[in-house]
# Entry
Amino acid sequence: YYQQWKKFNIDDIHQPSNLVDVAKFLTAHENIASKRWVYEQYDSMVGTVNMSTNFPTDAGIVNLKGTNKALAMTVDCNARMVNADPEKGCAMAVAEAARNIVCSGGVPSAITNCLNFGNPYNPEVYWQFVGAIKGMGKACKKFGTPVTGGNVSFYNQSSVNGIDIPVFPTPTIGMLGIVEEKEHITSLAFQGKSDLIYMIGKSENDISSSEYLYSYHGVKESSAPFFDLDHEYDIQQVIMKLIRSGVIESAHDVSDGGLFITLLESSFTNNLGFEIVSSSEVRDDAFLFGESPSRVVVSVTEIGEDAFLDVLKDCSIPFILLGHVTKGRITVDDKHYGNIEEYKRIYNGSLSERLK
# Structure
């Protein structure tokens, strides 16, 4: 299937005329919508050391009392992308975990894993397993994150009409990072109206393996998105530099649901909105909902923009000014997409409604 799926071409997919409907569809999707209804039924405070409760960050932050340090922790894996390309997909899972640590102000330090696969005596499943291990190894070496332990779970499959169907290969990555100084802790939330919104990294004309392609269009067979491990590492080094220079107000990586969902998640905490302009080099649906990695959305105050650009001027990393933070209105290319309260209701309520 791997060779067949690589033939996917974005030009074979018709772009919907109403992208607002797509935005609301993805916001409500169970893979993207808030899981608050589930996790708030349990203790999420970790005593009094959880620093992310009222200050959301890409990775969970745990206070180390009596020190100026903190721990950053995250768990990541996109099984669709691993299924499309096991080696690349698993490397992307490690990269996303590292990106979450970095965006929160930490330094990636080590990983553990939970490797979930089907029957290893199925040659295709064993090929997936070997590929995932190769991808994990390459990425861990690049980020300097030793594998401290983990577990392997095989024979995860269902029988349909007498045929065993394996689960998508799901090498779940748990990563630990160290926040060297607590003042480096960076929220994913936009902080103020009129702050400028930049994206570090480059959008690709790519919707491969995205939730948008898989769920909205119903196209289950596509390649993994473009990914370059060296470029990803360089992006993360720039984000570290920006955070330590104190020139950004927020940082949030582009992941499930694409750029539009990333912007929404950054807007929810303080009930803000955004006004952005898309790129003429990329299809509108790919720009908003494509899930190509190695991208981080940051916000900058107007008076801090010069200092921000000074840090970036010596870095050979692509970046783009997307637009600015608003009081709650959401606008893309001068088209009104709604307001933040509407999306917040959809995001916070859709999962609980499905499970009732």
